[in-house]
Amino acid sequence: MDVAEQAVQYGDLMHAVRMLRRLWQMDSVPRSAAVRRMPFAATPSAVEALVMRPDTEVTGRGQRRVTVADIELLDAHTDLYGRTDARHGGGQFRSVFAAFLAAHAVPLLEGGFNNVRGRLLYGSVADAVLALASMAYDDQLPGLAQRYDLQAMRLAQAIGDRGRLARGCIHQARLAAMRGDGREVLTHTRSAAIAATGGPALVRAYVAVTEARAWAYNDDGAQCRSAVERARAAFDKAGRGSDPRWLKWLDRPELEGQAAWALVMAGLVDEGEQALKVAMGLPPERTRDSVELLITGAELARLRGDRAGWEESLAMAKLAAQHLKSRRLARRLEDAAEGSPLRAF
Predict the structure, then answer these.
(1) CA–CA dist 195, 186 (Å, integer)
(2) Each residue of 126-167: pLDDT tens digit?
(3) Torsion-angle region of 39 (φ positive above 0: left; ψ -120 to 50: alpha; else: beta)
(4) How many C-beta atoms lie closer than 10 Å to residue 242's C-beta?
(5) What are 113's strand-pairing partners?
(6) Cα(47)–Cα(63) distance, integer angstroms
(7) Please, are residues 95 and 34 in contact by the beta-carbon 8 Å criterion?
(8) What is the pLDDT of residues 298-345, one digit of tens each?
């Protein structure tokens, strides 16, 4: 079976499980040649996930009984590797996480569980897969990231989780930006907005700030500013309801950091500077995000014609990034050093 071809097809739930088993097996091999040569594929699957109804039944009939402890262990590992990824980059530990999922998650997906536990299991697996997709994106492997994203979206669609679907659409927008396709970036972010309609405030904030980035990517400052305002308004309402655990990393500094990138890229320098000041309160262990902020600061200085400020921010970014394993960030630093405008999403 050609996994690279099969994994971009939007099949039934068991198809997604089969694809994940194969992808995890392949990705558990460090520096796998098969993984690195996966091409990016044009596919309507993301739209299909958005419009299809949830599956009527998500039970498992395997012999192994899936327990709450099994799912908690999966969640704990996803949290662990998410924090590790934020501190060290996605190029170091993705294969280890994939190997864990091949060993632990596959037996669960093939095990026995009722509808209630099935919803919990598929949601937890979707979170783990989206975390792997982010690591692949950070490692400049768009083909692998796309295939992970699509399987996660199929799991989210199966259980009717619109928030996780929105997250998948946001991931698709990032991949479209890697290819320089501004129209596709907007299409995927608008799909995320549709998926998040009526959802938790924190999800709507995440979607709106991504939409701001998409408008900035398409050089529309007015729409960018409007989306930033919506993101902040939604974030101010967060915490009063059931915000999803997979989005607990979205705090005020993270939101303002993404807003700063969008505003600076849209040429709204003063507003971008104010957002960047708030974003600098980011926890120090989020090394990669801190480097992103310093790159935004360098771009801000470049737009102001502040050569000394540009050099200082860039030097600090390079110093902070010296132990990171992120091909994407290394590319951003190279572009910034050449004085190129921000284009990476």
Answers:
(1) 14
(2) 999 999 999 999 999 999 999 999 999 999 999 999 999 999
(3) beta
(4) 8
(5) 60
(6) 35
(7) no
(8) 999 999 999 999 999 999 999 999 988 899 999 999 999 988 777 777
